[in-house]
Specification:
By secondary structure, the protein is an alpha/beta fold. Helices cover 38% and strands 28% of the residues. It is elongated, with a radius of gyration of 21 Å.
Length: 256
């Protein structure tokens, strides 16, 4: 996950999701081969079939083309279910990944989503292998240490359609993007919550403090409910600035 910490533009939130999608698909393919062979990588086995390198494959998604390395077995009997041999397009894959993140990655939820993704029921043992590989990477990225000081933090949200309880709902994913003292932009994290309130934003900002942030010079925000009070409580010395883009948009509403 360290590869996707840096961002040069706010629009690269989408690029971050694309990179996470690529890593996710790679881990799932590895878990599928592990399930097929019946033993883990580097584990001793009496089987006469074993791993035999990788085959490069390009698949198209709605967040752009993704280059993958599909693992092979020596006998050539392994048939991936996530991305079949002749399949070159994955529809709405990033929405599926966001849904996994939003749902908290429980086994039941993942079984539901992967079943929807594959078109058939996935075995509990495969789900267990997938979650065992994916959860540590998500938690590592969510909890990675941050710098002590940032010049500016943008707090805004993007909207995604997420399947929940058998229905597609639009949810806001709050994103925190920073500019550090050297002028680099970095995505600090994503947070999902049903309601935006002071309590929710206190949780977000305290999470940043727990990961090492001690001082922020400027917060650029869009008047989100309860955010100003949360900033004053957690970073009392920081200046709060209304986002210029949102100021212009709000002003243009009153211009004929």
């Amino acid at each position: 996950m360290s590869k996707i910490q840096k961002a040069t533009k706010p629009q690269e939130v989408q690029a971050t999701i694309k990179e996470f999608t690529r890593e996710f698909l790679g881990e799932v393919l590895e878990a599928e081969l592990e399930e097929f062979l019946g033993y883990k990588k580097y584990e001793r086995s009496d089987s006469d079939n074993y791993r035999n390198g990788y085959t490069p494959k390009s698949v198209k998604t709605t967040c752009g083309p993704i280059e993958l390395l599909v693992p092979r077995d020596r006998k050539g009997e392994f048939e991936p279910q996530l991305i079949r041999k002749r399949q070159t397009m994955l529809d709405e894959i990033e929405n599926q990944i966001t849904a996994l993140y939003a749902k908290g990655m429980s086994t039941r939820d993942i079984q539901e989503i992967l079943s929807d993704m594959y078109g058939f029921d996935v075995s509990p043992s495969l789900i267990s292998k997938i979650t065992d590989r994916i959860l540590p990477k998500i938690k590592e990225w969510q909890a990675r240490p941050l710098k002590e000081k940032y010049f500016l933090l943008w707090i805004d949200c993007i909207f995604y359609n997420i399947r929940e309880d058998g229905q597609v709902r639009k949810k806001a994913i709050d994103v925190v993007i920073s500019i550090d003292l050297e002028g680099y932009k970095e995505i600090l994290g994503f947070w999902i919550d049903g309601t935006e309130s002071s309590r929710f934003w206190l949780g977000v900002l305290n999470d940043l403090k727990a990961r090492g942030v001690r001082d922020v010079f400027i917060f650029s925000v869009d008047g989100l409910t309860g955010l100003d009070k949360a900033i004053e409580a957690t970073f009392p010395k920081a200046d709060i600035q209304r986002c210029v883009v949102h100021q212009i948009r709000n002003s243009l509403r009153y211009v004929s």
